[in-house]
Amino acid sequence: MEMIISQLRYFFASLLYGILLMVCYDFLKIFRRCVRHGKILLWIEDWLFWCVAAFVVFQMVFALNYGMIRFFFVVSLIFGMWLYRKLVGEHLVSGICAIFAPVHRMYVWIKQKCGKKTAKSKKSS
Questions:
Q1: Are 64 and 11 in contact (CB under 8 A)?
Q2: How far apart are CA 121 and CA 79, in angstroms?
Q3: Can you give the pTM of this predicted structure?
Q4: Burial of 71 by CB count in 10 Å (0-12 exposed, 13-18 middle, 19+ buried)?
Q5: Of all residues in the chain, what percent carry a pLDDT higher than 70?
Q6: Rounded CA gap, 22 and 7, in Å?
Q7: Which among 29, 5, 3, 12 is positioned nearest to 73, based on CA atoms?
């Protein structure tokens, strides 16, 4: 019975890790919407994110199942990612971006105003 409980714990942990990975990736998407950057930087960010994600998942697999990867683990991890994406993902990103959009616009406006004053003061010198 203990073996079944440990495998169930492994299953639900992988489901939770799939959800948490997508939550973290959504915060990366929110950052990308606020700060625009090129394709190379996007590629580097994705590469770093998935390398860290692989390390974190490996640590979980090693801690809960002695490093043995089971088929149900992979299915559960992917299902957790898919479930989060379908039920919450885009709503969370859109909601947080809608909350921070006015703050971001105000920041850009202040930055433009300060930039114009600095340019005028340099011309007059």
A1: no
A2: 58
A3: 0.74
A4: exposed
A5: 92
A6: 23
A7: 12
